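Discrete fold record:
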Amino acid sequence: MKTSDFDYALPAELIAQQPLPDRAASRMMVVERATGTIHHEQFRNLDQYLRAGDLLVLNNTKVIPARIWSESPVVELLLVERLGDSRWSALVKPGQRAKPGSTLTFTGGLTARVEGETEFGGRVLQFTGDVDAYLNRFGAAPLPPYIKHPVRDDADLARYQTVFAEHAGAIAAPTAGLHFTPEMLATMPHAFVTLHVGIGTFRPVKVENIEEHKMHAEKFTIPSETRAAIRQAQRVVAVGTTVVRALESTSEGTTDIFIRPPFEFRVVDALLTNFHLPRSTLLMLVSACAGRELILRAYEEAVRERYRFFSYGDCMLVV
């Protein structure tokens, strides 16, 4: 299949720039695979689509304030993956100011030596100083580039986070989980996995033949109690594409699984997910779950019905 097979037209004004004040107030498109029908709901009514014996599986990773700025030279950095105690891979902008062998200096005496380049065009950085303390004091939420309000807005550090976030390490939120409130979750059987969302989730597909795209590996953990709950469940409802990738991986600890049509799901029976970017691996994963034609038809209807798209937007339930 071609990357262009997963394209669609999206008006820019439908890209959600702010979250709704009430997490559960999002709209929810329900896509029924067996009949091909599409209808419209409110997320707060999710329980009406769950059956006895269903298990929600959510990703309890926690987003870190991974976006920072050096003072000399002035460079914007997005820390992507911890490689050691003080060693990180990062995306840098502009890249020409962070050449291998150079040193970046930050407020408060923190420095970073650029050791080399990464396979995704970033840099490997060796810091001197307490990086975690620096992030907690000066770091900003790693909002995706399609959200245009100021990235140093402290409110995003709280709102670009699920209410059940626990294990720090993600550079993007597992956005399907953003809709849940503690009150809703308390009424639904659920379990957790931890997949630290990294560049593998949102790295763009730059090849036309999707078979040639290689996913960047991301770390995950599936606790024994979650595995036991899945074995007992009548139906596993994955909350988000990262949960799908963790549950459908055959390896342990890290996954570079690329789920696209055709794919035989072994664990996941239903999927709650946000609306994803055109030509993205996330849209390909959802298409593997419900069929490319049905999903693209659903996206066309979402545009007509003025759904809110992407991270702070509305959601889709595929059953």
About this structure: The chain has a mean pLDDT of 94. The domain at 3-63+154-318 is CATH 3.40.1780.10 (QueA-like). The longest helix spans residues 292-304. The chain has two domains: 3-63+154-318, 67-138.
